[in-house]
Amino acid sequence: MKLKDKVAFVTGAASGIGRKIAETFAREGARVVIADLNQEAALETAAQLCAAGHDALGVAVDVSSEAQVDAAVGRAVAHFGGLDVLVSNAGIQIVKPVDAFGFDEWKRMLSIHLDGAFLTTRAALRHMYASGRGGSVIYMGSVHSKEASLLKAPYVTAKHGLIGLAKVVAKEGAPHGVRANVICPGFVRTPLVDKQIPEQARTLGISEDDVVRKVMLKETVDGEFTTLEDVAEVALMFAAFPSNALTGQSMVVSHGWFMQ
Ligand code: NAD
Q: What is the reported pTM?
């Protein structure tokens, strides 16, 4: 078991990628906090993990709220007696051309993706530094941390920004044994992507099948979606890596869509 008795706080863990990461970490012995805006789904996910013999806690949190994040992380630390891994994963998508974006939509995107990453990082670091146990901070970036696509200005901006945050946390966290890294997945079939397919088809004036084949998977080496398992295995590697040798990095897992 690679994460035996570690405590992992995973945001957006009631669905998609976050949920798979929480399940994978639990399988590897971690006690997991299912932190999500969707309270009902967070509690249900935690209950299912507990029913399967794991140790999990569901907490409702809006990652863009300073008070809610501090309270949720504090509750997790009190419940499990510490915090070793943060996965800052919660996210949404809004697609439209720059000239059509509302300022409120722009701010909402940056607030969830960037304020959420900052707030959860700050709360986690305070506990990690105080405990002296070190830790691992993992950000859910995207190929869009490296590359641009049509219709995704705030998403691409925010995902690029996460790499900057991770590099600073890697430098500041090193003396405390805290590592920070970014996972950059290609397209994964989750509710976030399923919602985009008809939206992009409408905006680009093409069929949904063409959105998948000619937009989303066009640049991959094999026309395949990245899977939840692929992303969760990279998260496990970052979480379990034993030293500061692997810090400040971003790893692209995208079927070759983007090659470093
Ligand atoms: P998803 O929609 O399946 O899950 C996202 C979860 O985040 C949901 O449970 C939702 O309730 C939660 N959430 C949304 N806003 C929140 C908030 N303010 N506070 C707390 N929780 C909130 O999406 P997913 O595809 O699993 O995406 C997870 C992350 O992976 C996102 O950051 C996304 O940008 C990133 N990502 C996804 C893909 C993909 O193709 N699916 C690719 C690259 C990166």
A: 0.98
